[in-house]
Specification:
CATH class of the largest domain: Alpha Beta
Number of helices: 13
Shape: globular
CATH architecture of the largest domain: Alpha-Beta Complex
Number of strands: 17
Order of helices and strands: EHHEHEEHEEEEEHHEHEHEEHEHEHHEHE
Largest sheet: 8 strands, mixed
CATH superfamily of the largest domain: Medium-chain alcohol dehydrogenases, catalytic domain
Structural class: alpha/beta
CATH topology of the largest domain: Quinone Oxidoreductase, Chain A, domain 1
């Protein structure tokens, strides 16, 4: 039998003395009015995005209304708005944002999943339109998560930490004592790779850019558990593997930069090693020497989290999210973020676009 519509306690109190509504009437209840970040055409985010009031949305019998708590501004979010990401929401009036965490506000009368008002939930796999104050989506979109971790971690657990975890598991069978090498090590994926590898007993060799503050960046990564951290210029030597000391030659490398930073990974990989490319921050191609293929027998692979999640992996995805948030709760997984109120969206966007120099990942707090 379908259950009655469930609401947050404050709303339930207001409705307590109203007569019970028949199912057909209850199913047509609506979400509260919302504010959302919208765009009608692709282009520069600071020109095409706008914050507007949007009307209430009907729940339907199996809909769940979620009051958003936090949502990050990821590079892929920017790319979607620009129109250069392979998968984008339909225009016009697209709502930006792809991951985040919210609190169940109301549950439709025929919902069967164990979701109750007040529960923390994330869209899993991620779903378009998280940059708004209230969202209504079908019950199977939402995954209940623990609420005893900082809200910004629940908001960002899917895209970056899950990418790091999958890449460590999907390409080379690693055992404790093995080593991996990565560039882009100060990114959130890079920081997660270091910590997740440490949990598994895997050693990490990390490459960062030459820039002011690189020594401070090295120290921060070593505090997370990095075994070695080098700038690109330090690795620009003929016998690069002499720098590894007692560390084994890495069997696996992660590239999110391209250009010279990718070539350095190829130099460090052992015979038969694999480099996985999951990004191209420098916008420069990956150039591979003929000898890397013939004499080292290296393998080049690619990874795109969205493709993996769309291949009937929803339950596995949710299990890993629970595992990752468990590590956060235990203090074994952390990364730098900055919470910015949704009312200051334009400031958060400018920071995400790099207008204020290098900034932590921006997370909108609703």
């Amino acid at each position: 039998m379908a259950s009655a519509l469930r609401l947050l306690p404050s709303t339930a109190t207001r409705l307590r003395f109203r007569p019970r509504l028949p199912l057909s009437t209850a199913a047509s209840l609506f979400s509260p009015p919302s504010k959302a970040v919208l765009y009608d055409q692709h282009g520069p985010p600071d020109q095409v995005l706008r914050v507007e009031d949007v009307p209430p949305v009907e729940l339907g019998e199996r809909g769940v209304c979620v009051k958003m708590l936090a949502a990050p501004i990821n590079p892929s979010d920017i790319n979607r708005v620009q129109g250069v990401y392979p998968v984008r929401p339909p225009l016009p009036a697209a709502v930006a944002g792809y991951e985040g965490v919210g609190q169940v506000h109301a549950v439709g009368p025929a919902v069967t999943r164990p979701l109750s008002p007040g529960d923390w939930v994330i869209p899993s796999p991620p779903s378009f339109g998280t940059w708004q104050t209230y969202i209504v989506k079908p019950e199977d979109v939402w995954h209940k998560v623990r609420d005893d971790v900082p809200v910004e971690y629940a908001a960002t657990v899917t895209v970056n930490p899950l990418t790091a975890l999958r890449m460590l598991q999907d390409f080379v069978k690693l055992k404790p004592g093995d080593a991996i090498v990565q560039n882009g090590s100060t990114s959130i994926v890079g920081q997660c790779v270091i910590q997740l590898a440490k949990v598994q007993g895997i050693r990490t060799i990390n490459i960062i850019r030459d820039r002011p503050g690189s020594e401070e960046a090295k120290e921060k990564l070593k505090q997370l558990g990095a075994d070695e951290v080098f700038t690109e210029s330090q690795l620009d030597v003929k016998n690069v593997k002499s720098l590894l000391g007692a560390l084994p030659e890495p069997a696996l490398g992660f590239n999110c930069v391209g250009g010279n930073a990718a070539s350095l990974i190829l130099k460090l990989l052992r015979q038969g090693g694999t480099m996985v490319t999951y990004g191209g921050m420098s916008k420069k191609p990956v150039i591979v020497s003929t000898s890397s293929f013939i004499f080292k027998d290296l393998s080049l692979r690619g990874f795109w989290l969205q493709k993996w999640m769309n291949s009937d992996k929803s339950e596995e995805c949710r299990t890993m999210i629970d595992y990752l948030l468990g590590l956060v709760h235990e203090g074994k997984l952390k990364y730098e973020m900055e919470l910015t109120p949704f009312s200051e969206f334009n400031l958060a966007l400018d920071k995400a676009l790099g207008k204020h120099g290098s900034q932590p990942k921006q997370v909108l707090r609703f």
